[in-house]
Specification:
This protein is mainly beta. It has three helices and 18 strands. The N terminus is likely disordered.
């Protein structure tokens, strides 16, 4: 799926799963819905509406009333907490090697995340449901598109338990690997990391433990084992159907057995480096079968299990009360990418986000080097810039531009994004 938010600040979840709707790329906070350990990667406070009746109430009394109400709500069981992220985006692809790819695409990416806390006897126990409504088929040629091929699907459905220093998860979720797919800034900063690095919609279980060293920061070791979802939940419904995944389609972790796994260490809250967070991780995806683009199944001697490593860091630097600069750097190495024996890839994502009061400006790039077995190495890349403004009532508007070099061709796109977050 495609991510369309704008800021890089992201409230990480339990060290097992990173839900896209919880990123703060729209600069609105989602920290209240973080579904995991205390490892939190710099989220900004949320923005809400003030009720008309509150205008006649003394400001101090109103704040106290809201504080008390929030405390009482937090102790009720059962209760549901959630967030809905509404995004409407327009991409004008004005330059492409194939003129059929030059078109306008208007679409929505709307995500709802819902957490059910069933009992006060186990306050850390909750069930999570994450629904996504987005463009599930973008293989169109030559025609402008307006909310075409939108479908809704279950991105995650899991049972979670979160304690002070440990957490567990089971069900359908996204294993913890990489931060750039969720944290790179701008309208287009996450495009390549999300399409090619993010690992999502897996079925399995995992857990994490956090060591809080106070001055040395909080560091979480997480691990999970999983396989690609090929159940009825892998399809989509409402307006456009996304075909259900089948095992004979092959690909990494499409095994219907727990043979793939991820391990990662995430760190933050380091006293000497305020605003800094990092991740070092390893991912193994078992491969039973690889089907080429023309539908031909590769011989077993041409396939191999995929392995990856990631090293990433992000640093929100407060220059002043009004100015924040956030650089991000992530390197990911693939061995046997997508199950093709001997095909290695390197991805380097680098970005910088500049924030002044409600304004934001960002530059981002992802470079991909591919080294196929028996072939010549080549480099693809994407550059993008974005500028935007967050209104006090919660609406964010952004405009952006990107240039993509892929398979020897250059593509240029101008885009605009409107986003809004509803929390409850």
């Amino acid at each position: 799926m495609r991510e369309k938010c704008v800021s890089v600040r992201h409230a990480r979840s339990d060290g097992i799963e990173s839900r896209k709707h919880l990123n703060c790329r729209s600069i609105l906070s989602a920290g209240a819905l973080a579904a995991g350990s205390s490892l939190v990667f710099a989220a900004l406070p949320g923005v809400g509406f003030a009720a008309e009746a509150d205008k006649v109430i003394d400001e101090g009394q109103k704040e106290e009333k809201q504080r008390i109400a929030a405390g009482e709500a937090g102790e009720r069981f059962p209760r549901i907490e959630g967030e809905i992220v509404i995004e409407i985006q327009n991409d004008w692809n004005y330059d492409a090697p194939d003129k059929n790819d030059e078109l306008n695409d208007l679409y929505s990416t709307t995500e709802g995340d819902f957490n059910l806390f069933p009992t006060g006897a186990l306050p850390g126990l909750f069930a999570n449901l994450h629904l996504t409504w987005e463009e599930v088929n973008d293989n169109f040629k030559g025609d402008n598109r307006y909310f075409a091929s939108q479908g809704v699907f279950v991105e995650s459905l899991s049972l979670n338990y979160e304690a002070d220093w440990w957490s567990v998860i089971g069900g359908k979720f996204g294993p913890n690997f990489s931060i750039a797919y969720d944290a790179a800034p701008g309208i287009y900063g996450t495009d390549i990391p999300e399409d090619e690095i993010e690992v999502s919609e897996r079925i399995g279980f995992g857990g994490g433990v956090t060591y809080d060293a106070e001055a040395y920061g909080a560091h979480t070791l997480s691990g999970s084992t999983f396989y690609l979802d090929s159940t009825i939940l892998s399809g989509s419904t409402l307006y456009t159907s996304r075909p259900r995944v089948k095992k004979n389609q092959g690909g990494p972790s499409n095994t219907e057995s727990l043979e793939s796994f991820a391990l990662a260490i995430d760190g933050a809250d380091i006293a000497a480096l305020p605003g800094f967070n990092y991740q070092v991780g390893f991912l193994h995806q078992d491969v039973d079968r690889v089907v080429d683009e023309d539908g031909t199944a590769l011989a077993g001697s041409e396939t191999a299990d995929e392995n990856r490593v990631v090293v990433a860091g992000q640093w929100a630097i407060g220059v002043s009360n009004d100015i924040t600069v956030t650089p991000l750097l992530e390197w990911v190495r693939f061995w046997n990418a997508e199950g093709y024996d001997g095909e290695d890839r390197n991805y380097l994502t680098a970005s910088a986000l500049f924030e002044y009061q409600n304004w934001n400006f960002s530059v981002a790039t992802t470079q991909r080097w591919t080294d196929p077995k028996g072939g010549s190495s080549f480099n693809d890349y994407q550059w993008s810039v974005t500028a935007g403004y967050l209104f006090d009532f919660g609406l964010q508007l952004d405009v952006g531009w990107k240039v993509l070099s892929d398979d020897g061709g250059n593509y240029r796109t101008l885009g605009a994004l409107a986003s809004y977050v509803i929390e409850f």
